[in-house]
């Protein structure tokens, strides 16, 4: 990325009130600061404002408004569409704001807006507590939570938004407000599923649940010829499984890792990632049926630290690789849906691509749909069709993306919408389908109240009414 070709702005007015670091195109760390999780995203901000606290966020928002500059907000920088970066504008960067404070008696954690899942896990597990949210430890809690927050524990404890008790928010006019059930309750409703449309959350307060430090969890994998029976089992088992059971299927090529026998490397497999959010011994008993299914090639289910399990999938989606995905929310896995999945598994184009299938139900499904802005809680699954490839193989991108689109199109007749955090390059067209009619009407009305000029628009955007 040629820093000298990047746009510049006069940041002197901001520097006077800013405690953090301002990174302009001539700064030695500019190129590194422009990198996000998805290596395919190449944008050139005019300024990156690395905030140290809420006062810096307020100053950055007001500076952008006063100077009519486009702005983006960076937490973990994990959105596949690269919402964290804006060309020729200002990145309000929260990545240095990673402070946490646990109240073990109240079972709550305060976490600044730049925290990653790993930061929250590390702080809460010291006290034998856990926050619900996320499958990848290097995902930012901000984007995760504001879109809903699915994760290993959602069937037992609900979504991230279901555990959210309050949020400190810098609004589009540069004011800091508290949103909770008791203060600015309408804004609190919109934050829980409405994405980054209403402001910059500088601090989250979550309720924690007793869990760990040890859980029974891990992964089991089977060759592709057993995929139909494994997916049928998932459909039937998860429908009646206790809330403590979390299951995620994954379709991919077997990676060349020591856990996988060499003869299966590079061949299509189906895996189940299982988490038991309860006593480990009980989990080992309950998940016996999963382990007894078919003839697996890998079984790494074990008693393990919860923080280790939370990082198990990190290596499969590292920073810097190129990613492209499309997603559907689905009902139960019908035989036709399973046939489509197995057919497209056989057509997969990259050894780094994968198709996670997340299982809903349990606690998250019992929250009334109008309680938050997260829709379709009665759905059975989210599927995310993820293509991934190395930067040096960029010439293969069209082939990988075509596989994603073909898979996506084949499942479209079965779609019940989309998880807003899984929208990608088609966000403008698909954001509407991420919400029910009633939720959408309420969200655009809230947008008109809290951000009538659509200042926060570099996101899965909800236009003001």
UniProtKB/TrEMBL annotation:
Residue span, FAD-binding PCMH-type domain: 41-211
Official protein name in the record: FAD-binding oxidoreductase
Names of required cofactors: FAD
Annotated family: Belongs to the oxygen-dependent FAD-linked oxidoreductase family.
Signal sequence interval, chain numbering: none
UniProt KW keywords: FAD, Flavoprotein, Oxidoreductase
Name of one Pfam family that matches: BBE
């Amino acid at each position: 990325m040629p820093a000298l070709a990047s746009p510049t702005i006069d940041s002197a007015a901001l520097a006077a009130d800013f405690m953090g670091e301002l990174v302009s195109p001539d700064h030695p760390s500019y190129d590194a600061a422009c990198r996000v999780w998805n290596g395919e995203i190449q944008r050139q901000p005019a300024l990156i404002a690395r905030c140290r606290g809420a006062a810096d966020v307020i100053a950055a928002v007001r500076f952008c408004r006063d100077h009519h500059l486009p702005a983006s907000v960076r937490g973990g920088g994990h959105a596949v569409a690269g919402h964290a970066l804006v060309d020729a504008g200002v990145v309000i960067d929260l990545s240095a704001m990673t402070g946490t404070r646990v109240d073990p008696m109240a079972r709550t954690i305060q976490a600044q807006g730049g925290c990653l899942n790993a930061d929250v896990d590390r702080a809460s597990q010291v006290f034998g507590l856990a926050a619900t949210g996320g499958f990848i430890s290097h995902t930012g809690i901000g984007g995760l939570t504001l879109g809903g927050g699915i994760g290993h524990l959602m069937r037992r404890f609900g979504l991230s938004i279901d555990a959210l008790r309050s949020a400190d928010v810098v609004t589009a006019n540069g004011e800091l407000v508290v949103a909770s059930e008791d203060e600015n309750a309408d804004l609190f409703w919109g934050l829980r599923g409405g994405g980054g449309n209403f402001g910059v959350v500088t601090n989250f307060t979550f309720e924690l649940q007793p869990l760990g430090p040890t859980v029974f969890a891990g992964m089991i994998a089977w060759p592709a010829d057993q995929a139909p029976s494994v997916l049928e089992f998932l459909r039937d088992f998860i429908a009646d499984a206790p809330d403590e059971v979390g299951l995620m299927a994954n379709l991919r090529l077997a990676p060349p890792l020591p856990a996988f026998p060499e003869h299966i490397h590079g061949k299509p497999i189906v895996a189940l990632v299982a988490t038991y959010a309860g006593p480990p011994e009980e989990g080992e008993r309950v998940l016996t049926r999963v382990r007894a299914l078919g003839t697996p090639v890998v079984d790494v289910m074990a008693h393990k630290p919860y923080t280790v399990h939370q990082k198990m999938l990190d290596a499969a989606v590292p920073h810097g690789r190129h990613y492209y995905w499309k997603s559907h929310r689905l009902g139960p896995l019908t035989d036709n849906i399973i046939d489509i999945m197995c057919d497209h598994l056989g057509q997969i184009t990259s050894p780094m691509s994968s198709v996670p299938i997340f299982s809903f139900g349990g606690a998250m499904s019992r929250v009334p749909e109008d309680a938050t802005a997260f829709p379709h809680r009665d759905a059975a699954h989210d599927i995310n069709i993820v293509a991934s490839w190395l930067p040096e193989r960029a010439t293969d991108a069209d082939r990988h993306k075509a596989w994603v689109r073909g898979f996506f199109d084949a499942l479209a007749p079965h779609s019940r919408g989309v998880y807003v955090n899984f929208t990608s390059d088609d966000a403008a067209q698909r954001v509407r389908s991420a919400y029910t009619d009633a939720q959408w009407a309420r969200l655009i009305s809230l947008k008109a109240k809290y951000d009538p000029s659509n200042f926060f628009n570099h996101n899965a955007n909800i236009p003001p009414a």
